[in-house]
Amino acid sequence: MQTFSATIEKIGVNPYVLLPEKILICLFTQAGKNKGPIPVKGTINRHPFIQHLVKYSGSWRLYLNTPMRKGSATDVGDRVLVTIEFDPEERITPMHPQLKTALLKDKKAAAVFAALTPSLQKEICRYINQLKTTASVEKNIIKAIQFLLGKERFVGRERP
Known about the structure:
By secondary structure, this protein is α+β, with helices and mostly antiparallel strands. The protein is built from six helices and seven strands, in the order βββαβββαβαααα.
């Protein structure tokens, strides 16, 4: 577990902290890579988090989502104490059972889904999984299938 302090900055609408080079090198060594998202876990002002390090615009950033900031009672401009380590736990985003059923019924949509990048597959699954009502799930699964068939936008994306 590595510890450092940093000031929360913001790029666009996204709050983040930059990591010291020494800590990045340690995390890259633990992860066995220095490209792509790096899964990490740790604390911000003693509030636990699970997140990914992401390289954007030439810098590796730990983005601080709303639960991370609320839990640590921090905001942009605040100085925070961060503990961080590589998280080897596999992160799987399950497919909603109703989406799975819909894809089994529509082979063409299922083939398009299978050909999507893993990150877009995860984005679709995550979006549907976070919906609260049965009606929302059903409505958005229809939209997802239409998206996969090239007939509609979904999750802010143009048709594939």
